[in-house]
Amino acid sequence: MLDARLVDSIGKIISLGTILTCVLVTPQLALDPINLPKMVVLAITAGVALGMLFSVRSSITKNGSKAMLYLFFGFQATLFVSVVFSRQNLAQGIFGTHGRNTGLVTYFSFMILLFVAFHISNQKELKRFVKTLYIAGLLSTAYGLIQFLGVDPAGWDIYASPIVGFLGNSDFQSAFLAIFATVAFSQGVLSASNRWPNFAIATFAMVITFLTQAKQGLLAFILGASIIILVIAIKKNWKVVIGFYLVGAVSGITLIALGLRDLGPIGHIIYKSSLEARFYYWQAAIRAFKDNFLFGVGLDAFGDYYGRYRTAEAVAWNTQPTNAAHNIYLDYAANGGMFFLVLNLILVGWVIKSFILVVVRDRNFNGEFIALFSGWVAFQAQSLISINQIGLAVWNWVISGLLIGYASNSKVAEAKTAFHEKSSKRLRAHKEAQQSQLKSGALVGGFVGFVFMAIVVIPAYIGSVQYWNALTSGDLKRVESAAYIWPQDEYKYWSVLLTIGGNAGVIEENSSDPNPVEIQKQIDDIYRQALAINRDAVNDFPNSMHLWRLYAKNPVNVKSEIDLAMSKIKELDPNNPVK
After folding, report:
1. To bridge 47 with a disulfide, which of 8, 423, 453, 481 should be the other Cys (CB 3.0-4.6 Å)?
2. How far is CA 31 from its chain centroid?
């Protein structure tokens, strides 16, 4: 088993990193002030945690953890193969697309946290992580109230509900608060000493969830909280209650499924137009998965292929594209292929098996374990109609590791014999020297992990800051050069080209030069520079409809190149009559 002080240190690192991954935002500093800083913190946390764990790497293959080791390397191999065999831009595969950042770095970090959480899991770490969720949940709830009152200092550019929390979207905020409220409610039910404070916290969180106007939070809370009923019924052997629960669960799922289609008695309550859009997204994701069955279209690359796979009916309903399937498991399938999907489903099955094992095995209610599982169920419920947002998804991966690890590690601890106890006493004299060596090894490992991940991700954030400064500088030369800042991104190219085009339009509209020939020459020079950048853009991102459309519309482009662009647009979005 791992040294208790090492476990405690890694647990603190993961808890702090998870909180920061959830709540850290950098408004007015970078092009993406939400997802990119979360990716940076996530990756660095994962690097430090893995480095510290590897200081005792001989323990990693012990205590029945080989299955987790196989799953970990299976995930990594699948991700690398998906990036290599897909036709996506390499930078996009590594860092993900703008506004999502769920590329290789993010998934690699998620899986590290899963792996490390598995190895450090014990009762103390379960309690610590419940407290971790409370800290992030209370911060998000309080910030949601500030946003509702209209006194948010961040000044987000929000098009719908003002309550977006630290996640940038009311749906994500609603989902996270539902997970938090589910855990708080579970603690209230299973804790006699703090029952009413927990109920009050859960109620407060659900009030803010309701104010977001996003329905998925309510559904996630209902499904997650219902787990408590099931656990109590199993523990008390209330067979009738279990039967009613199962019937109610099947009936509830059926009503929700109908409601998502605006059918049944609760259709008018849970249905909204964005749900109809989701059915078209799911349909396109399934078609993309079928055509790219083994390795997918590439990590975070669904947006480049959505136009190819959406139907004419989807175009008629809404011509706007999307870059996510709005169902996490369909995202796994479309982006990563069959192997990535299967490994994620194996992980889900393992969590459920671990829950059953602990509930059946333990004589008493394990409040923290059950609470975290109920929160995990709430996450899974919202994941069926949502996007894999970094600040939200990190809870799923850490909780999954803790639940599986607790079921495995506590079983090993219980199997410890009296001989082992006596042996450990005889070895106590050697322990102090081992502790000193262990501490130095953990510090070195953590530092190496920090440096490695920082080298990978911090330049991406610095590039985003540089890009934002260039775009807001008003200097056309700086704007043009910003398109090539590492890591290159489809959105960077697109926004630079729009800015250049807008600048040409302003010159044409506001110029007081009496010589129209000189004005036109100046405008044409700007468009030629834009054309050169656009040519690089479509070479780097040949599957981008947005970039090909700008290329076709450039007024100084030649007919042969315009024809090429139109043929690519038709290839990438065959059912769209709007070109």
Report:
1. 453
2. 18
Q: Which single residue is written with the structure tokens 């506590």?
A: 410
Question: Angle, nearest 10°, between helix axes 367-383 and 390-414?
Answer: 140
- Alpha-carbon separation of residue 229 from 112, 186, 260, 352 (angstroms): 33, 10, 25, 16
Who has greater pLDDT, 241 or 184? 184
Other beta carbons less than 10 A from residue 110's beta carbon: 24
Is 275 in contact with 257 (CB distance < 8 Å)? no
Would you say 445 and 51 are in contact if contact means Cβ atoms under 8 Å apart?
Answer: yes
Distance CA 358, CA 123 (A): 12
Rounded CA separation 276/324 (Å)? 15
**Mean of per-residue pLDDT scores for the chain:** 87
Amino acid at position 427, single letter: L
Q: How far apart are CA 359 and CA 26, in angstroms?
A: 42
Burial class (CB in 10 A: 0-12, 13-18, 19+), 222: middle
Write down the residue that tokens 């070895």 correspond to: 427
* DSSP 8-class letter at 177: H
Tell me the pLDDT tens digit for each residue of 236-278: 777 787 788 788 778 877 876 676 666 777 666 656 555 778 8
Runs of H (alpha helix) within 149-236: 170-190, 195-211, 216-236
User: Which domains are assigned to the chain?
Assistant: 4-440 (no CATH), 474-572 (1.25.40)
Using CA atoms, how far residue 208 sits from 155, 160, 175, 307, in Å, is 19, 15, 11, 36
pLDDT of residue 419: 38
3-state SS of the chain: helix, strand, coil percent to 5?
75, 0, 25
Q: How far apart are CA 117 and CA 10, in angstroms?
A: 9
| Euclidean distance between CA atoms 404 and 121, whole angstroms | 8
> Tokens for 334?
């479309």
Residues present in the chain in total? 579
Classified as helix, coil or strand, 578 is: coil
pLDDT band with cut points at 50, 70 and 90 for residue 508: low
d(C-alpha 334, C-alpha 341), whole Å: 9
**H or E stretch covering 291:** helix 273-291
Tokens of 312: 């004419």
The four Cα atoms 221, 227, 228, 233 give a dihedral, to 10 degrees, of: 150
